[in-house]
Predict the structure.
Amino acid sequence: MRLFPTINLSYPVGLNATLQASYSKRINRPSLFSLYPFNELTDFNAQYVGNPNLNPSYANVFELSLLKNWGRFTFNPSLYYQNNKDITQDYTFRNNAGVFITTPINIDGESRSGLELSTLYNPYKFLQFSMEINAYYFKQKGFYVDQDFDFSGHILTGRLSTQVKLPKKLSIQGRYNFNSAQSNAQSKTASIHNIDLGVSKTFLKDKATLIFDVANLFNLRKFETTTTGTNYLLSQVSSPNAARYRLTFVYKFNLKDNQGARQAKTGNRN
């Protein structure tokens, strides 16, 4: 049996300002894609194979944050430290047939020290902006077969969102996502960015909503990775999810809005 305690403390430090401290123990289970031992053959020279022997990763997270509100503007910076054990890392090697095989493995662990900033701005009733930025330093440690996975570096991620409420209960939402260039002991990945856009219309006395959204608009989200081995250099460019268009219709049957619900902070840390 494992326990996953969470402790949250808060203390008012002024008008509309609160200092918060927290500790939590978390588990991160490997995805089904990472566990699946068979691969879809899309490239004869490079293949990805899952690892059914993967273990979950456990993390201890300490956080200190400030929540300050100025009416239309909310400011929420936080400092955090995260210690992860048995993290999942991709390992690439070349087999006897000359084919590059990439498979997820567990390495000893990773520590992170970072700063996260979340803001929310409502200049008008019909207009809202929100931003999340996460910058952290990481240090990884581990060894697998012939590869030393000891490595350290910096990563920056960000998200900028906006929502516009137009007359006739028409709403437009847009979001820009950014991930800086990232590296580990074996590979380097170029920066990644993409745009999501959605439009919604509510009608029939607020019981029905029609939503049209586009994920990865303009097909900007691409992965450019360079992997270095003892006797090879592998460069890859992939676009696993092209622009996706979706039309959704939602109808509420005697469903009441939950005014007491509060959306948790996303963290933007994965």
About this structure: The two ends are 26 Å apart (CA to CA). The chain has a mean pLDDT of 90. Residues 6-251 form one domain.
